[in-house]
Amino acid sequence: MESLWLSMKLATCVAAILLVVGMPVAYWLAYSTWRWKFLLESIVALPLVLPPTVLGFYTLVAIGPRGPLGKLWIALFGHGLAFTFGGLILASVLYSFPFAVQPLIVSFEGVDRRLLDASAVLGSGGLRTFWRVILPLSLPGVVTAAVLSFAHTLGEFGVVLMVGGNLAGITRTVSIDIYDRVQSLEYGAANRMALVLLVISFAVLSFVYAVNRRVWTPWAAK
């Protein structure tokens, strides 16, 4: 179960980071009128089409002892970033980025522009309008972004294996643990871990659909 708790810890950290980083990016993409913003949209969506091994390889090169991020990390903390839990977090943030940003963009774009105009007329600045108008009306999208980021990170394999390797208690996540058990012909143990992951994934997706359909959320129509 150590690998499962490690995966849960990783997914929680990544989901929290993506909400903080993804919100300003999604806000800019939702409301910017820059004609070339499709370039940033393409960069954000790139992990959706890139093979995990490709993203993992370039991340590993960047955080390795000769890479720019790796050299900076060693200079600051005295040890490398590759094959560490911190390296897993960085790689997972990059890999799950579109799963957080895209639901946020859809939610932000769905806010009635007349409400934003009314807020501006009343003297509210952009930041105040975001916290008092846009964010409360976009809560389903925020929940969706957080949950999808969590679920996607929980089931990662290729990126995690490339960047973190297979170190027990440090980088061996549940997906890698299942793979190891299958390779060792421990099908019973692999099946138990796979079932746990299946149940968690189903529960997470059910939660997202419940929020989106406003089945039980506090802002649902009576």
CATH homologous superfamily designation: MetI-like
Distance between the termini: 42 Å
Architecture (CATH level 2) name: Orthogonal Bundle
Task: Identify the overall geometry.
Answer: globular
What's the total number of strands?
A: 0
Strand content: under 5%
Q: Over all CA atoms, what is the radius of gyration?
A: 20 Å
Helix content: over 70%
Q: What is the succession of H and E elements?
A: HHHHHHHHHHH
Poorly predicted spans = 215-222
Rounded average pLDDT: 88
The CATH class label is Mainly Alpha
Describe the main β-sheet briefly.
none
Q: Structural class per helix/strand content?
A: mainly alpha
Description:
The protein contains eleven helices and no strands. The protein is mainly alpha-helical. It has a single domain (2-212), classed as MetI-like (MetI-like fold), CATH 1.10.3720. Helix 2 (37-49) packs across helix 5 and helix 5 (85-109) packs antiparallel against helix 8 (139-154). The longest helix is centred in the N-terminal third of the chain and has 30 residues, at 2-31.
Compact overview of the structure:
The protein is an all-alpha fold and 222 residues long. The chain has one domain (2-212): MetI-like fold. It has helices at 2-31, 37-49, 52-63, 68-77, 85-109, 113-121, 126-137, 139-154, 158-164, 174-183, 187-212.
